[in-house]
Structure formats: structure tokens, C-alpha cells
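Objective 1.3, modelling of assemblies. Example input:
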Amino acid sequence: MELSYLEKIKQECLEDIIRQYKRVNAGHIGSSLSCVDILVYVFFSVMSKEDKMILSKGHAALSLYVVLAKAGYFDHDLLDTFYGNGTLLAAHPPCNRELNGVHFGTGSLGHGLSLAAGLAFSNTFTHKKNNVFCILSDGDCDEGSTWEAALFAGHHRLKNLVVIIDNNNLQGFGRTEEVLDIEPLVDKWKSFNFDVVVAEDGNDFQSLDTAFTSFVTSNSDRPKCIIAKTTKGSGVSYMEDKMEWHYLPMNDEQYMQALEEIKNS
Amino acid sequence: MRKEFAQCIEKLAVENEKIVFLTGDLGFMALENIKNAIGDRFINVGVSEQNMISVAASLAYEGLSPICYSIAPFIVFRPAEQIRLDVCVHNLNVKIVGNGGGFGYGIMGATHHAIEDIAVLSSFQHMRCYIPFCNEDVEGVVDRMFSYSGPSYLRLGFGVKPGEMVIPPALPIRKVCEGSKITIIGLGPVLLNACEALKNFEKNTADVFVVSEVPVLELSEELQESIRKTKKLIIIEEHVKRGGLGEHIASLLMEKGISCEFIHMYVTGYVNGLYGNQVYHVEENSMDHVSIGAKIKALITA
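Predicted structure (C-alpha cells):
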């Protein structure tokens, strides 16, 4: 798919994200903006209908919902139920297998990679051929269970598993290098028997495209890891690289500015 | 029970190609036959219980029938969140097998004991805990577990059926001994100590019921009738008081308006801070046949 077309989809998704967060006066905006480019790229440029996505950083659920709606997994109007009582679209993906495109509820970090590895591994027995994608946050990389899953994926040579790390260097209560240094990430994932490539700008389709394309041309039997260097709050200047936008809702002025910046991007 | 478990799983897994057996690096001298029988459907995932449970959840999501095996404390407490979220809230068909429930691993110490497992797991959504009464009961209970397509936990222990006892086919609640003065309900092999204790009483002293599925969804009519008749009840379990069988049954009895004199025999942990084999810990917690006999006598003569 043409990257210019992806830009159009991204812009529409960003507008949905900002509008919905404002409508419900909720936070996790920065987290959603950090990975929306990855989700748009993977859903519209890489994934087949049989492929599966696990968003381990479930707090970016709105980003996933918006992209799923855009990709036709469910009706766009369902987004207007986000965050309300009686919705399937909770602040974290639902755990009830009722929402098309959401295979597992996530929200407690450290589960996603094991779930994705299990889905990828199931092909050994079901003889399906699909790929499984998993988006991890920096915080996910703090969890011991993530590394159990990485060992498992590397050991079993799950070549149909693609891990994308939304590496924005900000986590719940500080900068990653100050809280719990996860570097050197490339060396870590390589040492767990993954093929690793860095997308130098994980909020740029060209950069993501270059990273993904390098795997397409590879015949490796290893699981893949893309370390996407992203910016929390990407696309809204006052949110970019600011930890507080993990939590804060927008006031009216901030909302108008965010919409304006997205429209003019 | 591990030998009996391995035998029936080997049979089931050969017949059913959807069964995938995962172990957390345990099963030496026990699981080799399963491994040899099912080849690549037997996976040693290493010492990584959290990953094992989530991987199993995904295998179940894809329509497979995974079994996760380790010793009871390791497979219940470390991955409790994975069981709660990835398996139970999603209501997936994952069978979790813990060997050595209660004080089963004896002198191995507190790290290897599981005396709170039923409390933790039976509180999770859709989870059913299956507890065979004795070695001879394993096959029937495993069959019951496989007839349920939600999350389940099998608590294996060790106990040999008394020669004269006839154990009815597996059901959640079964009467294994007939009597009229007192009703005894138990969970797992520790109930055998009550059967031993009853040898020192008149024949037909106690109605003895074994419970092999928790949560107890319904009290059988036979059990209700027994308690109404004897008005004296002892519940025995190699498990802590909170969240165990005693609280489950007491709650159901209150809901039904059935009152009785009641003694709950449960374990409290490490009373004197010292360690020994399973028999030692059971005695220390006053669950041996002598202690149980004293309680029976006290309640009968009360």
C-alpha cells in the first residue's frame, strides 16, 4: 500500500483518537499516539485477514479500537461507546472474546508476548500459516514474564512471530533509563535468538516500512523484533515526550490545539 | 496419584490429537510415557510457569486442549495472574495439574507445599478444582475434568483406598461410608484418616462424603438429608480455613437453612516452625486419625 494512503488513514485515526479521548475526558492519550503509526502500518500494509495482533500495552486500547474500526473489524459507530457503561470498548481491551480483532484482553503488562507466542506456536499443531504481531511497551520489557516468552519464542524458532517494541523511553513514573534501564535492547533481543532491526523513527511510515521490508526479504527461521524508536504523544506538540500525557485528559484549549495540529500535519 | 494420572493422560492424549501437554520442567520418572506416546505434543517449556499458562491459553484459544503440569505450588501461585486473566476471565479450556497438593511434598518444605491453592483458584471465574479422593479415584475424576470445557485444576496427592471400601463413580459429592450419628465431609486423601479413625467406633457411626469438585455448586440431596438426620458435621481438608471446603459448605448450608453442630478441621500451616514428611505436617495440624477420632467422639457425645 502507498505510504501516502497510510498517511491519510493515520490522520483519520488520529482525529478519532483525539475526539474520543476528549468526549470521555480520559487519559492514556500519549500512549495511544505513540503506537498508532505502528498499528496503522501493520494492519493496512502487512497483516492478512488470518494474521493476529496482540496489543500487550493494553492502555493504548483506543488506538487499537480506532484502527480496527478503520480496517472494518467492527462498525465505526461502536467507537462512540468507548469508556461508557455497558461498552465492549473499555479503557483496556476486553477479556471476553466478543470484539472482533481483539483475541485477548490485555492491560496488565507482561502477558502479551506469551499470548502472542502461544498463538504463533499453535500453528505447529493446527497447521495454519498465519503470522502473529505483538506490540510491547517499554514497561512490558520490565516484566519477567516477557523474557520467559522471549526465551520460548527463540527456542521454538517462532518465525511467524513479529514483536514490535513501542520504545518511547517513557514509562509509568519516569524515563526508562532512570526507572529501570532496559538497554541495550538490540543486544537483548538478539541474545534471545530474535532477528532484530531498529526503526529509527517508529512514528514514520517510511522508517517502519524499511524495517519490515528487511524481514520480508529474509529467510531466517527466527522470531522477529522491531525496535521502533517512538515518541510518546507523537503528533501533538505539547504532548510529545511528556510523561504526564500518559495520564492527563485534555482541556478545551488543548483539544482544539491537538485537532489543529493533526489536521495540519 | 501421579502414576495413575500419567496413565490416563497417555490414553486420552493418544486418542485425542488436540491434547497438548506442557510441563514446567518437571515429571522425571512419571511423564516419560506420555512424552514417548505423543511426540511433539509434549513440550517442556522450562521453568517458566507464567509463560506456560499464557501459551496454554492461546493454544486453547486456537481450539487445542492444553494441559499444564508442575508441582502444585509452582503452577498455582507464581502464574496466578496468568491463570486469572488469560485463562479464567477468557473462559478457556486449559487444564492445570498440580502434583503434591497440601503437604504432599513433605520434607521439601513450605516452598513445595500448597495449602491455599483451592482458595485462590476456586475464587477465579469459571475455574473448577478437581480433587481425587485416592489413587484409584484419579481416572474417574480426570474423566470428569475432561467433560468440562472451561478452566480446571487437578490437585494430585497420594492415598490408597482401604481394601473394603467401594468408591462410587466420580461425581462432585459422593457417599463412601454409611452411618447415622454424624456426617463427615472431606476433600482429598486426608479424608482417609477419618475412615481409619472410624474403625475405632461402632459400625455405621458416620455418613462419610467425599467432595472432589470445588466450588461446590450444589449440595446433593443425600448430603442434605444426612446432615438434617445427624445434626452433627465435621469437615476435613488439608487446606487452610479461608476459602476452603469448610467455608464453601457452611455457606451453602446457611443458604438452605440447615443447622447443625459443626467442627471444621483444617490446616493452619507450620505450627512449631519445623519440617517433616507429609504425615508429620498432617499430625502437627491435628488431622491424623487419632486427632480426628477425638473430634468424632467429642461431637457424638456432645
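DSSP finds nine helices and seven strands in chain A.
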